[in-house]
């Protein structure tokens, strides 16, 4: 379920900014790689700086893409086993445990990613002399944004389950989602 329609204005805007960065960054990676391949094949040389920029963009696109997928509720879930084994009354507790573990994991990734970024900030890249820590900063930045979206989605699901409305974590009678499995 796409949670973005239920977001407050600030989260909608944040999601839009991430999506815009993903589009611009993705097109930039495509153009950089293509132009570098053409130059290498046609002129016999490549642009060394394009490889570093591409590496930076790919890492930032990966971790910001995680936040964008969380905003859409698009992360893969395998629910068939839990639905068959765990009684229906216990499934909300399982959801609570899973979502709590996700929060713990995200906080851990933010903490350790921040430390790695901080410890590598003084190192410079070979061609552009950018801080290597900027490369590693993509992990805590992306996971912090993912945590923000996940907490809002988690609270939305809790409020919906308490009120008896489908908050997005359960399947509906619309089986068009099965096309994507």
UniProtKB/TrEMBL annotation:
The keyword Plastid does not apply. Residues 30-159 form the Tripartite ATP-independent periplasmic transporters DctQ component domain. The chain crosses the membrane at residues 12-35, 47-71, 92-114, 126-149. It is a multi-pass membrane protein. It comes from the Bacteria. It is found in: Cell inner membrane. The keyword Transport applies. It holds the Pfam family DctQ. Its main location: membrane. Keywords: Cell inner membrane, Cell membrane, Membrane, Transmembrane, Transmembrane helix, Transport. Belongs to the TRAP transporter small permease family. Part of the tripartite ATP-independent periplasmic (TRAP) transport system. The complex comprises the extracytoplasmic solute receptor protein and the two transmembrane proteins. This is TRAP transporter small permease protein.
């Amino acid at each position: 379920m796409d949670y973005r329609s239920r977001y407050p204005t600030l989260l909608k805007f944040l999601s839009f900014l991430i999506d815009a960065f993903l589009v611009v960054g993705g097109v930039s990676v495509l153009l950089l790689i293509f132009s570098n391949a053409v130059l290498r094949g046609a002129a016999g040389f490549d642009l060394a700086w394009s490889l570093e920029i591409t590496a930076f963009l790919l890492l930032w696109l990966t971790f910001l893409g995680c936040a964008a997928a969380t905003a859409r509720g698009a992360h893969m879930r395998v629910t068939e086993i839990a639905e068959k084994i765990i009684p229906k009354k216990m499934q909300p507790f399982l959801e609570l445990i899973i979502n709590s573990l996700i929060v713990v994991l995200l906080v851990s990734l933010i903490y350790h990613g921040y430390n790695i970024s901080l410890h590598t900030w003084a190192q410079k890249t070979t061609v552009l002399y950018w801080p290597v820590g900027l490369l590693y900063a993509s992990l805590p930045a992306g996971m912090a944004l993912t945590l923000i979206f996940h907490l809002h989605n988690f609270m939305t699901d809790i409020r919906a389950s308490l009120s008896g409305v489908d908050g997005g974590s359960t399947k509906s009678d619309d089986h068009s989602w099965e096309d994507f499995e």
